[in-house]
Structures are given as structure tokens and as C-alpha cells.
Write a structure and sequence with these properties.
Number of helices: 12
Pfam family, one: DUF604
Structural class: alpha/beta
Mean pLDDT: 86
Keywords: Membrane, Transmembrane, Transmembrane helix
Strand order of the largest sheet: 11-12-13-15-16-17-19-18
Shape: globular
Protein name: Glycosyltransferase
């Protein structure tokens, strides 16, 4: 039987066009839905990853949480977010090693820098002393008994044992919110604002042992270049103080032959494996005599401490020691960051070299002396070891004068005032009457100057920038016999040119 093969029905053009349109629309819709699904799943995947990371962080450390990266910021903002950048005076506790026998005299130094209601700390003594709340002094406590500890150094005193435990005993008090323990002697003067500035550079959550060495090369050899000298003061971060407190009593018993408290601290730091972080503003002052050379050419670093005030000459030679400290800290009230910082400029017309140590002294010298030479301390002082020559210091130094006619004329800070409308500090420096040789140079003598006026804009953020000396400039003075100097941050292209 033959099969009948049917022909396909003819397709209408209108129906074909509708079918094609429907097919394309359907494909487009499927594509769009599929794309949305991919995007949704991708976002969901990111959210899952973040949630997983949050869970992992939480399980690892219950006190931590995931945070998105910070937005872009300026240099100042980045500094503010450093680990220690928000460190303030309230985060610091001072442990002061004192002597009851010397208390009546030494407490006068403490009064000058202590800030009642702001600073926190304890003076540790061997016996009770009488104090009054009106004096504005820190709390006093009696050190723990160390009579069972061996001490065999023939040249030292057993008091070194109790003083070496000042940080640990201060730690045991259990004060709240402590980031740093700062130790010093009862004749150590702290520039508190600069203590805060220096410690703000470091992460207080890490192990830090911060301080300075002696000015005497022989002292550092005898003790250690790795040791922070206690009189100059040093700082220990909270977690390091916590570890030190655990081991210290056993540690110091292993070193009965050491001389002082600071080398016992360093011996324990060596056992903990923590090196000294050196800061140039901590000053032991193992010297005798006049500090003009050192303070007149201070390193480009914040002034943090002054020590051995009973040994050195008064900072201002026409005042007593305590009054000198009070006078110096008067300038610190207006610009503590710039205290003692050196500036160098030249009076080309009169052929003078001028060195300004802000808040302290101005020195005018006949002739042109390079900044390279002026930034080296003049040896106005004597070494801790009699007979030691200039090679016995830990820094470069220079002769006070090269020629008799170049003996500097010194003007010491007399008064400081602040003009809040101009935001400017004005310091008046008076000449120190001392003999000068007869000089037949044709240049004008600085003895014609009876006062120096130094103008300066406060700069509390100077140590957030790279270290650099300020620039100074001679400006016209209305009164004859007065020298007027403007000290400021150097402008672009400005320098201490000859």
C-alpha cells in the first residue's frame, strides 16, 4: 500500500514575524534575569566572606572586631591614627626615686614641673617625710624592704636596691589607664609636655625602654651604652613594666655587684631581650660647670629632662638653681615644644653671627661662624672625670672661642609674654655682665646692644614634622640699642645662609 506523503502547510509571513519577536523577547528576559542572579550571588558571596572573617576574628580574639580600611587622609590625620598618637599626660605615671635626707631641698625642684591634678605618680622614700597639700607635690610612699637582697659593690650604696624597684612598686599600685611608667630622681626636672610628645611616637602596647645615655664617654664605658641613665630619666611601656615586675626581684639578686639602680634595670632588660631606644632629649648631665654650651646648641630634639641640678651651675647665672628652673619653665608655658631649640642667623651689616636658644639665651659673636660650627656645643663645662680631655664626651664639641675678640656676648632670657591677638610670643633677653677683651676690630661691638627681643609663633606640632632647626631673621627695631629677631619655621628655599 502506497504511503501518501503530505506536504507541509505553508507558513504565513505575519505569523513568522510574531514568532521571531516572541523568541527574541524571551531570550532577552532570560539573559537579564540571569545577569541579576550573578550580581546577587556575587554580593552575597562577599557578604559571606566578610561574615566568615568576622566570625574568625571574634573566635580568635573576643575583644577585636573587623573594621573596613580607613579612608584616605592627610599626613596629620595619619599621625593622629598612630598607636600612641592619642597619648596624653593622663596615660603617664611618674615613679620618682627620692631620699628623705635630701627631701626638703629636692622637693623644690619637683614643685617646678609637677602639675597638681594633671600629673600622676609617687615619690618613693626610705622613711616618712612631712608634706602639705598646699605644696602641690606628688604622693610619697615608703619603699619595700630590701635588707634580704645581697649588695657587694664597694663604691655604691644599698639604696640602689630599693630604687631599682621603683617601677615595679609603682606598677603594683594598680592605677587605671596607664600606658607608660616614667622614672627619674628627685633632682630630675621633666618638661612634661615633651615627655608626652616623645612617648606619643611609640606604640605603648609594645615593649619599649626609652631614655638617654651619659654625656661622659667614660661613664658609658664603665656602665653601658645600652643603659638609660636613671637621673636623666627613662620610660617603660605598660606591658614591659608588667613583665619586669614578674622577674625583677629574682633578676636583681643575680647582680649583687652592680653599682646603681639604673644598671640593674638594664640588666633585667637584657634578660627580657629589650634594647634601649635612645632619645636625645633625656639629659643625665654628667658634667660640671656652665651648661651654656650644651643648652645653647641643643640637638634638634625636644628637651625632656634636666638632671644633676645640685652639681651644675645655675642655668641662669644671676639666679639661684630653683629660680633658674622656674624661669626656664616660664617659656615652656608658651611653647614647650620649642624650648631650648637653636636657630642661627647673621647680621651681615654688622658682621655678627647670632645663635638663639629659644627661651634660654641669645649669643652674639663677632665675625661669621658657620652653622656647622655653631651647632656643636662649646665646652663651657667640665667632664665628670677630672683630667679627661675633649675626647671623653659622647658628642662633638668645640672650643668656646677661637680668638679673644670672638668671645660671645650672652643675653639670657629675662621675661616672656604672649600676645594672643597676634598669636606671638615675645621674649626679652638681657645682657650678662662679664668681662670681654679689648678688641680693635673695625666691626661694631655687640656691647652696644642692651636688650634682645625675640618674636616667635608657637608651634606645638613641630615634632610631628621632620626635625629641622627654625630659621631666624633680623628685623628693624624701633629703639636704638635693641636687637629684634624673628624666629619661625623656615620658608621654602630659606636657610641659615652665610
Amino acid at each position: 500500500m502506497r504511503r501518501l506523503i503530505q506536504r507541509p502547510a505553508s507558513v504565513c509571513p505575519n505569523n513568522l514575524k510574531s514568532s521571531i519577536t516572541f523568541l527574541l523577547t524571551t531570550m532577552l528576559l532570560v539573559y537579564v534575569l540571569y545577569s541579576f542572579k550573578i550580581i546577587f550571588n556575587k554580593d552575597q558571596s562577599v557578604n559571606v566572606d566578610i561574615s566568615s572573617k568576622q566570625s574568625l576574628d571574634t573566635s580568635t580574639n573576643n575583644n577585636s572586631s573587623f573594621a573596613p580600611p580607613p579612608p584616605s587622609c592627610t599626613n596629620d590625620e595619619r599621625f593622629d591614627r598612630l598607636p600612641g598618637a592619642d597619648t596624653t599626660i593622663k596615660h603617664i605615671v611618674f615613679g620618682i626615686a627620692g631620699s628623705a635626707d635630701l627631701w626638703d631641698d629636692r622637693k623644690e625642684y619637683i614643685k617646678q614641673w609637677w602639675k597638681p591634678g594633671e600629673t600622676r605618680g609617687v615619690v618613693w622614700l626610705e622613711s616618712n617625710v612631712t608634706t602639705s597639700e598646699k605644696e602641690g607635690l606628688p604622693e610619697t610612699r615608703i619603699s619595700g624592704n630590701t635588707s634580704d637582697f645581697a649588695y657587694t659593690n664597694p663604691e655604691g650604696r644599698r639604696a640602689a636596691l630599693r630604687l631599682s624597684r621603683v617601677v615595679s612598686e609603682t606598677f603594683r599600685i594598680g592605677m587605671n589607664g596607664v600606658r607608660w611608667f616614667v622614672m627619674g630622681d628627685d633632682d630630675t626636672v621633666f618638661i612634661v609636655e615633651n615627655v608626652v610628645r616623645v612617648l606619643s611616637k611609640y606604640d605603648h602596647n609594645q615593649f619599649y625602654y626609652i631614655g638617654g645615655i651619659s654625656e661622659s664617654h667614660i661613664q658609658n664605658i664603665h656602665f653601658s651604652y645600652a643603659m638609660a641613665f636613671g637621673g636623666g630619666g627613662f620610660a617603660i611601656s605598660y606591658p614591659l613594666a608588667k613583665e619586669l615586675e614578674k622577674i625583677q626581684d629574682k633578676c636583681i639578686q643575680r647582680y649583687p655587684g652592680l653599682y646603681g639602680s639604673d644598671d640593674r634595670i638594664q640588666a633585667c632588660m637584657a634578660e627580657l631581650g629589650v634594647p634601649l631606644t635612645r632619645e636625645l632629649g633625656f639629659h643625665q648631665f654628667d658634667i660640671y660647670g656652665n651648661l651654656l654650651g650644651l643648652l645653647g646648641s641643643h640637638p634638634v630634639a625636644p628637651l625632656v629632662t634636666l638632671h644633676h641640678l645640685d652639681v651644675i651651675d645655675p642655668i641662669f647665672p644671676y639666679m639661684g638653681r630653683v629660680d633658674s628652673i622656674r624661669n626656664l619653665l616660664e617659656s615652656a608655658r608658651y611653647d614647650s615644644a620649642s624650648l631650648i631649640q637653636q636657630s642661627v642667623c647673621y647680621d651681615q651689616r654688622r658682621f655678627w653671627s647670632i645663635s638663639v636658644s629659644w627661651g634660654y639665651a641669645v649669643q652674639i659673636t663677632r665675625g661669621i661662624i658657620s652653622p656647622r660650627e655653631l651647632e656643636r656645643p662649646a665646652r663651657t663645662f667640665l667632664n665628670w672625670y677630672k683630667g679627661a680631655d675633649l675626647t671623653a664626651y659622647t658628642f662633638n664639641s668645640r672650643n668656646p672661642i677661637r680668638k679673644p675678640c670672638q668671645k660671645p656676648y650672652v643675653f639670657y632670657m629675662s621675661t616672656t609674654r604672649y600676645d594672643r591677638y597676634a598669636n606671638q610670643v615675645m621674649g626679652i633677653y638681657q645682657p650678662y655682665n662679664e668681662s670681654h677683651p679689648v678688641c680693635h676690630w673695625k666691626t661694631t661691638s655687640p656691647e652696644t646692644i642692651d636688650s634682645v627681643v625675640v618674636l616667635k609663633t608657637p608651634d606645638k606640632n613641630r615634632w610631628k614634622k621632620s626635625p629641622r632647626r627654625d630659621c631666624c631673621r633680623i628685623i628693624p627695631a624701633r629703639r636704638r640699642g635693641s636687637l629684634k629677631i624673628w624666629v619661625k619655621n623656615c620658608d621654602e628655599g630659606e636657610y641659615s645662609g652665610l
